[in-house]
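Title: Prediction job returns without error message
Component: structure pipeline
Severity: low
Priority: P3
Assignee: unassigned

Description:
Job completed but the reporter wants confirmation the result is attached to the right record. Sequence as submitted:
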Amino acid sequence: MSASSGNCLYCEKMLHGRTDKKFCNDHCRNEFHNRQNSCSNNYMRIINFRLRRNRRILSALLSAKHTTRIGIEQMHDNGFAFDYFTHMITNEKGITCFFCYEYGYLKHGGQVIIIREKKNH
């Protein structure tokens, strides 16, 4: 005969078996943890989606070139979100380059200069 160990934390059914058991099955365990993490996971999912979209836009606009100039309005028209970038680097002249992964861009007046970062591996 199995000992009762309380109720499932997800579905609240009576648990049977080990006294430290928290869930009646894997489904309940997974659903419980998914629900607990859904807010932070959803926030991260939205941010990552925007970063990936920005990267795709930069990649498409740069195509096979190493450097290109493009208007900020065209960037907006393509759906680029300037508030989302992975990192930024300020050079010795005080000019800040914003990056979406390996693609960087400089804001310069009404123009954006897009450059591709060379990876050092």
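Comment from assignee: result matches the submitted record. The chain is about 35% helix and 25% strand.
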